[in-house]
Every structure is written in structure tokens, then in C-alpha cells.
Design goal:
The structure is a homotetramer. By secondary structure, chain A is of the alpha/beta class. Chain A is 32% helix and 20% strand. Chain A has 12 helices and 14 strands. In chain A, strand 13 and strand 14 form a beta hairpin. Chain A is globular. Chains C and D meet through strand 8, strand 9, strand 10, strand 11 and strand 13 of C and strand 8, strand 9, strand 10, strand 11 and strand 13 of D.
């Protein structure tokens, strides 16, 4: 069986990564790549890594039409666009995986506040499934519309979820200090993401105001069964890819108890690797993969737990998880096209 | 007036940076550079940036002899060596600025615990002055032995000190998440600091166990008038230089009050630059300089303050502050050889 | 059909890349990885990108024994070792692909001069096939011992071969200016490959003396049917991977003639991509792949042709070409495990 | 004595570097910085490395007016603008150092062909002095208008000039393969200079068509006393700063003869450092300085000489040489504000 897939917004970094991964998937054929900016151009002229790989030309995508032609549509668009274009009719015809933010937040008002825009298809929020595979696998199987999680959020939520769900930390003390590679900022031209402006420098940005904050809080609140408010600070790091989330909270259990819980939650998850005691994640080991590496330490002196999570922001933080979602939705092996060692050094 | 200076351990990155800065100082002549590994070699053959600048040859340094020849000795050595070599006799003859860790911690037992070695000249701990210039300026003026602060510590302490001293944060909640460039790891050969192992990756290391922790705690405790225990996590970032410390704590005052306090403490300090509201430090703006950039935000949702500090780890975090200390000790203009804009992009 | 493979010297960058690629090959099972330095350790503890992928432990490899157990042995060793260990008996039992230099040069005296060591199995030089797949495909099919080409050499030879073979350039004027990422220097600890020594700097090294020179000359001389001597200058570039070879020579034909020749030679080669007129290779587009990108320009003013070739030094320049050789030797599809778009940005 | 200086186009990388250097010059006060894009903004808000250093605000520069107010105007503008604005009247009032391309080429038609634009003040071409300090020092002393050389050109010309002038190479065989850091591309927003597009990749560009080619040829032709045509290929290298020029030609003399000539030409030049035999320039050793490092090897096998030159593109390749020119024009010590060791690692 081979399904047909369309990538809408295929010329951003996420869309391109998606195409790369799907190309290696033996049950998928990418039949359409769309781009507003590059419509009419050969894909391999834009992304020359696709030379001798792709023969497709970019189209100016029409969702209604694509829905007739393919089995699954991946949307890799800026927020606010998907919610205008997706509707029940499209969802009857094909499955949709939205890599943007529009269907991630269950509470329309939270979305509208943080994204400062009206939500145009709030009726779909209820049926949309939050595509954090390790958490919502069963719902994803039946979903017609999946909201693929954000990059920072995937890393942060998976790092903390077992602790929150099992009541092992004081949830009023959570601090997440996250570091991302520059590809997270996308391919738009901007003085701030020029080589000479990013290289050899690290900075915090959007302190106390980054839009991934409510998404992390939503999921950890669901897990805790109570409202969680936390501090989240993103940083821009001079590297192409990778997110490292260093998470802090007051611990309410000892190392062994916590270790056991992590193993219970994640011991059978292929894409989650717990590091050994005293060893911590580094983004280089997950670069190019769908893995999440998680490690933690207890600081006996302060009573804090420090949990470190690492992902590739474009893969488990975007395109890879989207493919994982697709695998689940279509009943393929969940690891298909994703079960490779990362390229190193890369 | 021109004083004579010796740099002991001149072929590490800190010693070399010290030499570079002192070379531009109109009141100082560097008359001796020493190195165990490179004794007998021309300095400019080891560090070719010194071609046409330095004619010196590395000597195998004997402190007693150097003390007879120079006015000030800078020690840029691994910990545990200075404490074996410095003694009262040397200090009678010349001033000493130790860039290592041996005289930073006032409590010998804390030193011996964290550094896992005996302190060989604990009698000097009392008279040694902790060389954090903005805090101990008056003591430094009279000091014969200055313990130059660590890199992470300089950045962390200066970022938090006004808050701690004025009781504006809950000191039981302090978390410092710090990111350093690779030069902080020194020039020793090690698989972990090879180009391909560091490039394109970020990691946390020595979680809850880094030796700069007790130094930060000592100084913040002095400021608070009570014992402070805090979480400190260093990270290795793919860049040559720079430290960014992102500091978190529960705030006990509003933005304006806090801003006023920072301005009271630092408004007249040349080397401390407070960023405007909504603007935050980035290591590129302090690279190559002795500046500390500090900015903060209040997270209304969590009640946390987030303070960000940035320095060049080899300058304000080592060699630059050492020169600033020397300037104070010898009555030179405190900013001499240090009052330059940073090189950018660098 | 699934063959068994052993990787000898599996913990260098080339060995590790080989393992990564072979892991994705549906007709190969890697059953042994060997390492002198890491014998007894779990492979995924050394290279953590192999977590949840590899369960193997490093062995201290014995070639005779391995030859009994596997169908193909890959040797990723420093030069001078393979020639001591490989012998006819081993080659009767299994195929060997040597990624080192020992069997590349057909003339023993040239080897011994450039490598300053005696060749211990010169009797095998004649039967060993130089594994430049696009050139020696037919010989490789029948080979028992393949000498996998060097990284600089693969890029340089493929860039120039059609010109040389068809007499389109003055072969007495060839200059190859090549730039390599740091992974080419291997994983050995060395002050010169520390992060802070390589980052933000480019240099030429081994001018007029690099060991890949005679290898390039040998192959171009074979192609030309006469002895070619050329200038080759390698450079170390601040990036993990990639080789760019910029090649110069006096041209003896016009653009169209040359273009036609390149297309004749490479038009049907999957792994060679000719760039369009006016477009030139960049290492980012081949990173992570087995592709060679080749483009050229004619400088009307000087009469020179400038040919630019780009490869990933660890893939087409080492591990990837080794797998391509294996595919040819065992009758697999030549592109198997190698027909993917490169990861970008990476 | 303290002269007044204006920097026109102060918010590009070259203008900013100029300001940084001039700030350390004890005989110069920068009284005006101009910028079309940032007029009205505080300079230290644009380039935060100037915090606590500069109090200036950007003006929208009027050259006539500036000429009344300052002693020297530095122009750091895209080509084609200076030639429209500079005139004899301005040059009567103050000295001008143009860091752009407009007055470098003595032959108007060559300028107009390569730059594809009309020259608006060709009458000034004759009196304008080409500001390659080591070559035209005496003319610069008397100049009112100096055309500051290009970055690639400075490095290339100085590397080859003694060979050309003394007839030590076959000038019909010159190939210059040059590698530049990304700052050479300026601060304009462009997808090609985004961090993720440049990082981890090297490429050649503008092959056989870069505008610095006629400038190099002009100067080498003057030196040779005959027309020289050569191949010049620029490359974009993933680093902020630095140019390495690897130059090839058939040699007509032996090592010792050539060495002697280099020493005759450059032995007394402070800013030119000849590397020892067997040692070659690396951009890291000149980063942050006005030095040119030059080294060479003879390839006995091919008869080629390989000369390697290294500079910091923004300093000796732009702002530093402009200050050196100013020092000569105003009778200051030629090395003033420029006689520092480079910052390393940087």
C-alpha cells in the first residue's frame, strides 16, 4: 500500500525536512509540494539537496483540490493560515496534519490572546487531536485532523510529563530554560538571523512571552489535573539545529523513585532514550533523528530536580513527529522512515 | 610611571588574553611570560597573533625570582598550584593577582570539599581580597593578593547581587542557567573539546556539581547577610567566547522598584551596562570587552524575575577583570586598556 | 538475501558513518564492530546517536576470525595497518573494502615514498581494485579487495577526469585548491583540531606534500594515458563535513564541447550531479549524501577552465563510496542505502 | 593635536569597524556618523557594543556640510554613490578616504565595464591615490582623496607583488583562489547570508567575474610593467571574518632567491609578517588586526610557487587600512590605533 501525500508550504525548512523524510518512506509517495513564493519552480532548483531525488515542481496549493488528490495533507504554514483554510469538507476527504499552531490550543481564547488573531475554525478545535505521539497515540489513530506540537513544547512536555503526572515535583516552581538552533527561526530574511548576527553569540528572547508557553502549560496541566503556570525562556544558539531544554523544579521524591517513573513511562518508547545516571543529553546525539533524549539529576543541596531534554527541532520538533503521526494515523509501523541513527558529526 | 608585570601560565587562553590586554596598557610593561610546556620558545611562535608585537621568550617561571623582578605577578594556572607557591615573602615583594580558584573561597573547608585537594596556604585566605571590582573596590586598592573571580561567577553574582542585597527576591528559589563558549574549557587536548565534538551542539555539564557554585553562593550570601543555596547549571555552547547567565527567582518587588535598585548599584559603573526595558543582553555585544550587560524582565504570570547577564568569559570573566584589579591596586585609571568597544562581528 | 558485515576501526568518524549507513541497508547486517581503544564497550555508549539503534559491543578485531564470520570486512584504519593484516587467505574467505590508503597506489615505490613506510603486502596491489565506482565499476564487480579512494581524491578526480581523458585541458597546468571540513582530520586528540583552534579560521596545510596528491595523479595519468603532475593544496575549513575542490587548468575547448563531454560521462550517473550553467556546487547540498556535485565555468579572459566539485568527505569521500562499492561487489542495487536527499540545514 | 573625523555609512560592518578603531586613536575624534537607514537613532542602540563608548546619534549625512566640520571624511558606501557626491570643492576643505570602489580603477572604462554604471567624477581618478599603504606610501602622504583598496585585492596584491615586480614568476599562469568570511557580504538582508544558509558550507561564487579582479590586475600590471590577466575565484567560508588567498604561478627562481626578495620588500613593514619556512598563514592569527601574514612554498614537482596571504577583511581589507591611510595623510605614526595583537580565540 502506498498513500499519496501533499506538503503545503514545502519550501520552508520544516516543509523541506518533511519531504526529505517522506521520500525515504516506503508506503508514501509525495505527489504535490506547494509554495506561494516558489510556485512554478522545480523543487530541486530551490533545494539542491533534492537534485536527482525529486522531479516535482512547486504548485500554488489549493487545499480543496489537493484533498481530492491525496490521502494526507501536511500543512507547514505560519499560524493563522491553516485555520482559515481547513474545514469539515476537506477533512472528510483526507487526513490533515497541521504543523502550525492553529489547532494546538484547546481553548480558543488562549489562542487568540497569545497569537493576537481571531481563530477562524474554532469548531474544529474539539476534534483536532494534539499530536504528541507518546501521549495521545490512541486518539491519533482515529484522528482526521492532527495538530502537530511545537518544537520547544515537544521537548519540554516530554521532559516533565511523568514528574507532573505522578506528582513528583512542586508544579508551582517549574522553570524551563530552552536553547534552540537558528533553523527554528525559519527561512525568512531578517537582519537578526544573518550569519554574522547569530554566529558566535547566544541570547535569550521573548522572555515571559513566547507563544509555546501556553501550549506547554496546557499539556502539563492536563497531566497534573490542575492548572500549571510556569516560566519558559527560549534562547537562540549558534547552530543549525537542535533544542536543549533544561528544566528545574523542587523535587518531591528521590532519584530512584523518579528513575522508576521515567522508565515506566518511557521504557518502551522507541523514540525516547533515557540517559544513564550522570550522563546528560546533548543535541548532537539527536541531530537528524526523531529521538528525544532525556536525563536528570537531583541537586541534593537545593532539593531541585534538573531535567534535560534534547531533540532535533526540525524532526521530533516538527517534520519527524508529523511523520510519526501519519504512521499512527494510517496504521504503518510507527517508526517507519524514522528509525535511523543520527548523522554525526553533522 | 610604568610598572613591570609577569604572567605565569602565559600560554593558556587566559594568560594569552592577559598579555594581549596588558600590551595595550601604557603604564605596564610585560617583562616575563612563563610556561611549563613551552619554556624556551618564542611567544609569537606559539601564539602567532603576537608576531611583530612580542619579542619575549617563555621562561620556566620561578615565583621567588619573578617577585624580585616585577611589580605584579599574574597567575593563570590550574587550581591547586598557586596555593603551593604563593607565600608571605613573595607578597612582601610584589602584588599578586591569582586568576585561579585557590583564594576565592574564604572557607578553607568549602574549598577542600569542592576542589578535593588540601589548601597549602590557608593562612593567606584572610588577607586575600576577592577581586570582584564593582563590589570590593576599596579592599582591592589595599590588597597585596587578589583572588580574581571565576567566569561564571562574575556574570552570575553581578546579575543577582542588587536583588539579593536589597531583599527583592526569594533567595530560596534562585536558579542560574549559564551558557559558556568553548574557550572556557581551556587549551588542553581532550576529545570533548575537539571541533567536531563541540560544533553544532549544546549540552549541560557538571549539573549540581560545578565548582563555581560555592563561589557564587559565598558572595550572594555575604550580600544577603544569610546563607544562600542555589541551583547552578553550566552549558557548553558552540562559540569561542562568551557567557550568558539566565537567572530566575521569585520576585518580591515590581519592575520599577527593581530597575531603580539596579540603577543605584550600577548606574555609575563603566563596565556594567543595563539594557533598556524589553531589550536583553547577547554575548556578541560584550565579546572582546570587559563589559557586563545586564537586563531583566518580570514574568507577571509566574511572579518570577528573569535576569540575564552577559560577559566575555576570557575578559570580564578572567583577564580583563584581572587588569581592572591591577588598575585599582596601582592607582591607575580603572578603565585603562579596557575602555574599547567590542569587535563586531567577531 | 542478507549479508554479514564487519567494521574494523568502527569508532573513528569514518567507521561510525559506515555503520550508520549500513544500518539502513536492507541487505546487510553489521555483526561486528571493532576498536582497539574501546573494546568491550557498548557502541551506543561511545556514539550515543546509536542509542536504541545498535546493541553491539566493540570487539578487539581479529581479521582471520572475522573472515570466517562475515561476508565483507570494511577496514577503517590508519594507513600501514591494513597492509600488514590482509592476506590471500582472508581474501579467499571474504571480500574486503579497505578505506585506508594501503592499496590505492599501484606503484609500491610511490606508496613507500609518500607514506614513508614499507608496504607489507605489495603482492596484493595488482589484484586490488581502486574503488572509484563511476570509473572502475566493472572491475569492482569482480574484486575481492577494493581500495576505497581518499576523500580529496574522489572529489578531485571525478571533477577533472572527463577533461583529462578527452584532452580538453593542458594537463601541465592543473591546480587543485581543495577545502575540507574538520572531520577529515579524524577523531584523534590534537591541539590543532580543538574547537577554539579551528573555529573561525581557514588555513592551507601540507602544501605540495599532501599524500592524496600521488593518488590523484595516478588516476588522472591513467585517464590521460600519460604522466600528469599537478599542484594540490588542501585547506582546513571551519565546518564539520564537506570538501570543495576548485580546479584550474588551461582549457582547449569551448563551453559547449566541454558540457557535452561532462554529460556523456556523467549524464547517467546517479551520484554525479552536474550543476546548471552559472550555478556552482556548495558543500551544504551534498552534506549527508553520496552525491558529487560538479560545475564549471570558462574564464574567457585567461583561457582557464574552473571546475568546482563538492562531496561529503565522510560519505562519497569514504563510507558512502565504500557502501557503493559493496553494492557493486555483491550485486545489490548500486544506490541502495544511499539514495536519499541530504539533510538541510545540517 | 586631535583631528575631527566623519564616517559616512557608519552602520555597515565596515563603517562600524572604522568607528571602533578610530575610537582608540588618540589623535582623532569621531564627530559624526551618518546612515541613511538609521538616521536619528543612537549609534549604541544599533551596535550595542558601543554602549558606554559612543554618545553619537546617526545623522543623514550631507558631504558638503561635513566637509566644513571635519578634517577627514571616511566613506563606507556601496559603489557608485561616492563618485556622485565627491567633488573638488569638498576636497579643498577636507581629506577624503573612500572605502568603496569608485576611485580604485584608474581606467574609467574598466570601471564602467565591471561595475556596469557610469562614473560621475572621472576627473578625480587621476589625483586619487590608490591607498595600498605599503606600495603608495609617498603618494598617500600628499593625497587629498584616497581610494582604499578592496579586501580581496589587498590580500592578493601584497601576496604577489614582489614576485611580479622582480620577474620571479610567469605572470601568464597566475591563479588566485581566495576564501572570505561572511562579513565581506555586508549587512544587507538576503537569503544567501542567513545563518542556516552559510553555516557548515563553503562555496565558490562569481567565478571569473568578481569585481576585484580588474583591481588586482591593475596593480600587478603596474608592478610588472606589462599587462597581467589572471584567474581570481572568491569563496564564501563559514566564519565571520578573514580572507585567505592561495596564489599559484610557475616560479622562475629558487626558494632562497624568492625569500630574499620578500624580505627586501617587506622586512621593514610592520603590518606585513612573513611566516617561517614551512609555516603558513591562518586567518585566526590576523583576525582583529591590520596585519597581512604571507608565506610561500615551492612545489618542486610542478615548478609552481604557492603563496598564501591572510588578512582580516574588515581591517587590513577595509577599515584598518583606511586608518593606516589616515595616519600617513596626517603625519601620525603609521601604526597608531593599529599596533595591537589580535584577539584569540575570537
Amino acid at each position: 500500500m502506498k498513500i499519496k501525500a501533499a506538503i503545503v508550504g514545502a519550501t520552508g525548512y520544516v516543509g523541506e525536512e518533511l519531504y526529505r523524510i517522506l521520500h525515504t518512506h516506503s508506503n508514501v509517495e509525495v505527489t504535490a509540494v506547494t509554495s506561494v513564493s516558489y510556485a512554478g519552480q522545480k523543487y530541486s532548483d530551490i533545494y539542491r539537496n533534492f537534485g536527482h531525488i525529486s522531479q516535482l515542481e512547486c504548485k500554488d496549493g489549493d487545499l480543496e483540490k489537493l484533498a481530492d488528490e491525496v490521502d494526507v495533507i501536511f500543512l507547514a504554514l505560519p499560524h493563522g493560515i491553516a485555520s482559515k483554510q481547513i474545514n469539515a469538507k476537506i477533512l472528510e476527504k483526507c487526513k490533515v496534519i497541521d504543523l502550525g499552531a492553529d489547532y494546538r490550543l484547546k481553548d480558543q481564547s488562549v489562542y487568540e490572546k497569545w497569537y493576537a488573531t481571531a481563530h477562524e475554525s474554532a469548531d474544529l478545535l474539539k476534534s483536532a487531536v494534539y499530536g504528541l505521539c507518546e501521549v495521545y497515540r490512541d486518539d491519533i489513530k482515529k484522528a482526521q485532523l492532527v495538530a502537530n506540537p511545537g518544537c520547544y513544547t515537544t521537548c519540554s512536555i516530554l521532559s516533565l510529563l511523568p514528574l507532573v503526572k505522578e506528582g513528583l515535583i512542586d508544579t508551582s516552581t517549574i522553570v524551563i530554560d530552552a536553547k534552540s538552533g537558528v533553523s527554528g527561526a525559519g527561512r525568512g530574511v531578517n537582519i537578526d538571523t544573518l550569519y554574522c548576527e547569530c554566529n558566535e553569540s547566544i541570547k535569550a528572547y521573548k522572555i515571559a512571552s513566547h507563544r509555546h508557553t501556553p501550549e506547554i502549560e496546557q499539556e502539563l496541566s492536563f497531566a497534573a489535573g490542575k492548572d500549571i503556570v510556569l516560566s519558559f525562556t527560549p534562547h537562540l544558539t549558534p547552530m543549525n539545529r537542535g533544542i536543549l531544554a533544561t528544566c528545574y523544579a523542587k523535587a518531591k521524591a528521590d532519584y530512584k523513585t523518579i528513575r522508576t517513573v521515567y522508565e515506566k513511562y518511557y521504557g518502551n518508547e522507541f523514540f525516547i532514550r533515557l540517559t544513564k545516571e550522570g550522563v546528560f543529553p546533548e543535541t548532537r546525539w539527536v541531530k537528524g533523528t526523531n529521538f528525544v533524549d532525556i536525563g536528570f539529576a537531583l541537586d541534593e543541596r537545593t532539593g531541585n530536580i534538573v531535567v534535560v531534554g534534547a531533540i532535533d527541532n526540525l524532526i521530533k520538533g516538527a517534520a519527524g513527529q508529523a511523520v510519526q503521526n501519519m504512521n499512527i494515523m494510517f496504521g504503518f509501523d510507527e517508526t517507519q522512515a524514522l528509525d535511523t541513527a543520527g548523522i554525526f558529526p553533522a
